[in-house]
């Protein structure tokens, strides 16, 4: 039996390598997104902590200068949170772009694999036909060789 060789094997290999690269890029984008989310969570935690401290200090009569400092710091944290939410949104959009690119790369590879499977099925059918022709030729040769032996194809 002849060996099956896919006519676009090098193209399929290239698509597989590109898909792997896109997977890595998507993974990197997800890691960056997670880092941005962690920064946001830390800022929100710090804001919650400072608001609690500020609330306690107000109850015990805080000095005006400390009141102003806490208030400024809390406002700064709120601004940083707004900025960080923007960074998270950008990271989400970037990760989504990388995901879509990966999906497209996977689709391209899969379509080539489908073509490869169809080509292989055609190859197997052709091999069956060749084998059948070969068997038919052998049977035909034996039959004609038996007639040439002089007994007319009968065994008396």
Architecture of the domain at 16-107 in CATH? Up-down Bundle
DSSP summary, beta strand count: 0
- Give the number of helices: 2
Looking at CATH, which topology of the domain at 16-107 would you report?
Methane Monooxygenase Hydroxylase, Chain G, domain 1
Computed CA radius of gyration, to the nearest angstrom: 37 Å
Note the beta-strand portion. Answer: under 5%
Terminal-residue CA separation: 39 Å
Class derived from helix and strand content: mainly alpha
Largest sheet: number of strands, sense, barrel closure: none
Identify the CATH class of the domain at 16-107: Mainly Alpha
Chain-averaged pLDDT: 90
Low-confidence stretches: none
The proportion of residues forming helix, as a percent range, comes to over 70%
Query: What characteristic shape results from the CA principal axes?
Result: rod-shaped
Oligomer: single chain
Q: Order of helices and strands, N to C? A: HH
Structural write-up:
The radius of gyration is 37 Å and the shape is rod-shaped. The chain has a domain at 16-107: Methane Monooxygenase Hydroxylase, Chain G, domain 1 (Up-down Bundle), CATH 1.20.58. It has helices at residues 9-59, 64-151. The model has no long low-confidence stretch (mean pLDDT 90). The chain contains two helices and no strands. With 156 residues, the chain is mostly helical. Helix 1 (9-59) packs antiparallel against helix 2.
